[in-house]
Write a structure and sequence with these properties.
The chain has helices spanning 10-19, 26-38, 87-101, 116-124, and strands at residues 2-4, 42-49, 52-62, 70-78, 107-109. By secondary structure, it is an alpha+beta fold.
Length: 139
């Protein structure tokens, strides 16, 4: 079952984000989770089976000046014990349907160059490489 994330899902979503190598402390993650779930143009959804969160996806609507408004998949994680069972594809299809309901013609995402399995997964779903870039940040 795919549904919107709720406050009770915080620990399960945090566990999955940790599988990507991002493990903020609980208080910081709670702040992020609450901020995203409160934002009208964002959606966090979870794939659940018998009360266990097997996957999560965060998608948001991004307006831009240089191109049309699009949906961006910010994060997709399927529990490492559940990969290859269609959970990720179901979450992606729901994100695409969410985008279509909002009138967004394009769904895009970013994936790290070293995540070959993820890139193959997205290509199998019909996504194609549009560009490569360098992430720059000032912290």
């Amino acid at each position: 079952m795919i549904r919107d994330a709720e406050p009770r899902d915080l620990s399960g979503v945090r566990r999955l984000i940790g599988q990507l190598g991002y493990a903020p402390d609980e208080a910081e993650f709670r702040r992020r989770f609450e901020s995203v779930t409160a934002a009208a143009a964002h959606r966090i959804m979870v794939a659940e089976d018998q009360g266990v969160i097997m996957g999560m996806l965060h998608v948001f609507e991004r307006p831009a000046l240089d191109k049309g408004c699009e949906a961006v998949v910010q994060a997709l994680v399927v529990d490492d014990t559940m990969r290859g069972r269609g959970v990720g594809e179901a979450l992606m299809r729901e994100a695409e349907a969410w985008a279509a309901r909002r009138g967004l013609a394009v769904t895009s995402l970013y994936t790290r160059i070293d995540r070959e399995r993820a890139r193959s997964f997205y290509e199998r779903l019909g996504y194609r490489l549009k560009a490569t870039s360098h992430l720059m940040a000032r912290e």
